Amino acid sequence: MSTDVPPAPGRPAAAAPRFALLAGRRRTAIAAVLAVVCGGPMVPRSLLPLPAGGGGVARADADERVPPKVEAAVDRALAWMAKAQLPDGSWPQGQGASTAVPALAAKAFLSRGHVPGQGPYGENINRAIDYVLTKQQPNGMLSAGNGNASMYEHGIAAAMLGEAYGMVDDARKNKIEAALAKAVKMTLDAQAVRKDPLSTGGWRYQRASPDSDISVTGWQLMALRAAANCGAYVPKASLDAGREYVRRCAFRGGPGFTYQAGHGTPGPARTGTAIVSLEMLGEHRSPEATAGGDYLLENPVGNPGEGFYYYSVYYVAQALYHLGDKYYERGYPRLRDTLLSGQGPEGTWPVGSGQEQEAGEAYRTSMAVLALCVPYRYLPLFQK
After folding, report:
1. Which of 194, 195, 296, 314 has its CA 20 to 30 A from that of 117?
2. What is the pLDDT of residues 115-133, one digit of tens each?
3. Domain housing 104
């Protein structure tokens, strides 16, 4: 991937708000803190409501049992993931070192209910977390490099750390606190770079990019939401600006969302990303989101040979779940069954296209598992 416009110097970021994570308020359950972002000028964890019924591990609803074929597929995939992990905590990647694949892999284990440091995959998760932490750069960027995928890596890695925070041991908690504080500041500084009016509030491939796109923006919003969940102070104005950018990406000629605001055509991955972003920022079933849901039903994701198929199923699965009702009931089983049909005998998803083929089996398998595990609702960001 490459930027369309060369990076340009941005204006200095506004005075930074408080980024320190709240100390002493620990949560040990996988779904300990959920958020519908609301309240005053800052969004501390103490203002974010807990799920109904209090703490504890989230469970799939009794009337929505996860089919045995899904459980078996996910368990085969995770068994392969554990064996394929490298000693440093990463996985083989066709496009070089990255924090994104280890972060997605860790999320895949967490999405099935596995916990860092415990059970059959506890050490696999810990090693993945440690790998991500060791790659943080002095400016806060959670990336193994400085290329055009650096902000993707950063958002994915920060979101994973925020979701794992409440489950790790105290030593890792302290490391994640420090890492997230720096990561949030870097994310907000990148948002403050001078951009054209249509791009204001969003993010792009690199920290200094003068434009924005829905894909990178979705990951940054997910990272900020996850950081807020575990105690980071995130300015409400930043979340509001991100939400407004997502709204500007709504396709002007009909339902769905485009890659960049003001031009382009809609696509399932772009639309799924936008719906999830709006939903996790507290706008449940907004007009733009429900129109996007209609688009997803009319344009199902069903061909692993299509560009960014696994990226699409990751976001579309969550979008259908968040919208619920006909969107989930009609759209998700079709997506799930198509995804299951593409699993290979070793438990991986061997077929991809373009950059997703180059990214490797660990990437494709992690994204597939995350889509299949939405009904478990173990990850806080999978919950309503």
Report:
1. 314
2. 999 999 999 999 999 999 9
3. 42-382
